Amino acid sequence: MNVIRAFAAGFLTLAVLHVCVTCSEDESGTQPSPQPTVNVEKIHEAAQRIEDAFRSADPEAVLAVMTEQAQERYAGELGDVIDQLPAFADAIRSRQLVGYAEYYAEYSYASEGRSLTFALALQDEDDWKLMRF
To answer: How many CB atoms lie within 10 A of CB 11?
Structure first.
């Protein structure tokens, strides 16, 4: 019986030590892990260009900040929602970069009490473009 108690106490001690070593107070689940090969500033610059394009309410400017696949998907709809484009720009001003990798970045933003996301993809010309919103 003493062996079982000693084993349980040891196991609990290891579990507590593991939690103490792997967690810290200032860690946030929404902050992306740093990846030295990714230029985060370029991602932020692209997000600002996207915001500016939507604020202009110019469908051509919006299409210019999208990937080819996104252009194919959204091109037919932009004319129908032209008056809503500046509202999207206002909403994404609250954006926070929540994750990124070598070719993908995702922002979270709040709109009408909901948490939403939009994603960017790195293109061949070393430029980040909107792939989903």
So the answer is: 10
Round the average pLDDT of the chain to a whole number and report it: 82
The count of residues in the chain is 133
How many beta carbons lie within 10 A of that of residue 118, not counting itself?
A: 19
**29-132 CATH, one of 3.30.1050, 3.10.450, 2.30.29, 2.60.40:** 3.10.450
The string over 23-57, giving b where at least 16 C-beta atoms fall within 10 Å of a residue's C-beta and e elsewhere, is: eeeeeeeeebeeeeebeeeebeebbebbbebbbeb
Where along the chain do its domains lie? 29-132
Q: In this structure, what token pair is assigned to residue 90? A: 């206002």
The predicted-structure confidence for 91-119, as pLDDT tens digits, reads as follows 999 999 999 999 999 999 999 999 999 99
Closest CA to 126 of 101, 103, 99: 103
pLDDT tens-digit map of 23-55: 333 444 445 556 678 999 999 999 999 999 999
d(CA 2, CA 47): 61
